[in-house]
Amino acid sequence: MTQAPILEIRGLSKAFGPVKALSDVHFELRRGEIHALCGENGAGKSTLMNMIAGVLQPDEGDMLIDGERVSIPTPAAAQRLGIALVHQEIALCQDATVAENIYMAAINSRRAPLMDFQKLYADAQKVMDLLAPIPVRIRVADLSISNQQLVEIAKALTLDCKVLMLDEPTAALTESEAQRLFSIVRGLKERGISVVYISHRMAEIFSLCDRVTVFRDGRYVATDPVAAVSPDDVVRKMVGREITQLYPDKLATKEPGRLLLSVEGLSDGHRFAEVDLQLRAGEILGIGGLIGAGRSEIAQTICGLRSMTAGNVALDGKQLRPRGYGDAVKAGLVYLSEDRKGSGVFLDLPIAANISALDLARLTGPLGLLDRKAEDRQARELTGRLGVRMAGIEAAVSTLSGGNQQKVAIAKQLSVNPKVIIMDEPTRGIDVGAKVEIHRLLRQLAESGVGVVVISSELPELIGLCDRVMVVREGRIAGELGAGELGEEAIIMLASGVQDSSIQRRTQNVA
Ligand SMILES: Nc1ncnc2c1ncn2[C@@H]1O[C@H](COP(=O)(O)OP(=O)(O)OP(=O)(O)O)[C@@H](O)[C@H]1O
Ligand SMILES: [Mg+2]
């Protein structure tokens, strides 16, 4: 007799009002396997995880643990069944310390420590150190996004679980942090723990997972052993069509357009110094570098989100000295933050209101009244262009899947018809098919005369999309690569400052 799977989902359906998030789906998790769950943005992956974790209730269908039908009415019930979920969105208590966050879950469960704080801190540090040397006594608010993600994972590791579900755990991690996570996940598998792994990165799925299940539009498509399929097969099952061209054509003309953004000698007296940058109409400029090299800080300073101590910024020939982000937006310069919660979107507000939030003045009539019709028209046009999957533009952003929230964050920046747009990790959490669409849109924007700057941690994205890539190393421009010189090794060498290709393996947290 074969052993029953540790977790089985049969004929499960879930609707949110008119939106059918899942229809009659199946899923089977075997003991000690790492099982990838794939699908486009909005396919229903997180919804299924939330049902297994007791956050949401199914409308129909069965969930079985060890062959027994169970109901999972609350997250506490899921914990008692040995199920742990690392959510796609970071949901830590920002004012509490790392240790308090790590043990928040355990405190609520049977493994509650008896408020021995010394021990709590020591234990939390032990778990944290498995992932990264983050001091557990500091406040979560003071951590970078990638470190917050690691705290979320540490939190799940303290639960004594049989089933661990990771919903896009690496979306905000560096390559080396991701590798560390993979070795931990493999170790859990050795100990017989079963893992559900959600990711849009095919390479990860193929190096880590045993089997892969694909959902499309809330329906079950297939389950295959990873060894029996190719990444192309999986993508085809996800999007229901062949993706022939991953990246749009590059800048057709060699004639440089007019100078749109010029930065000279920019310093913030702290993280970076003497940064020069020139962006011409028609081109997409990439910015690469190691995580922590100062790429985001440079972009934020150019856009008035941080203050500068020296240097000049000119936008379309005019000197720009923004006192805040609002000034930059007014001048036609926008920034898409890598942290969509921090400065991207307001979760509780409707999609339409989010998209118009940057530039209400333009939609406001002479009497100070917001022109709702114009707001709606703009929201419809932009969500259509970006292919946002939603019930309607009046729906709250919190009802969207993670990738679709990212598209709303992009739509918000585009709504002001910017002259220059600087995008920090624009396709994080975006599925393979939508990524192609977003890249095409960025190319169209460039062709229509908008200056586009893309900061990315994905080398293939920098190389495939950009006409030119500037590499930042320790707060300085280490060099620049033109179209003919773009390659992974060239970027890595500039980013690390080491003239040796053997470093490639050691410095994978690059770009
Ligand atoms: N609370 C909610 N209210 C209304 N609709 C919702 C809600 N939660 C999810 N949905 C809808 O259910 C569908 C499935 O969303 P889900 O978050 O499961 O997608 P996903 O596969 O995780 O996508 P992504 O890759 O973008 O994270 C989407 O159309 C989404 O808009
Ligand atoms: Mg999701």
UniProtKB/TrEMBL annotation:
Domain of life: Bacteria
InterPro entries reported for this sequence: AAA+_ATPase, ABC_carbohydrate_import_ATPase, ABC_transporter-like_ATP-bd, ABC_transporter-like_CS, P-loop_NTPase
Gene3D superfamilies in the cross-refs: P-loop containing nucleotide triphosphate hydrolases (3.40.50.300)
Protein name: Sugar ABC transporter ATP-binding protein
Keyword Hydrolase: no
Keywords: ATP-binding, Nucleotide-binding, Repeat, Sugar transport, Transport
ABC transporter domain span: 7-242, 251-499
Coiled-coil residue spans: none
MF terms (GO), sorted A to Z: ATP binding
Family of the protein in this entry: Belongs to the ABC transporter superfamily.
Pfam families named in the record: ABC_tran (PF00005)
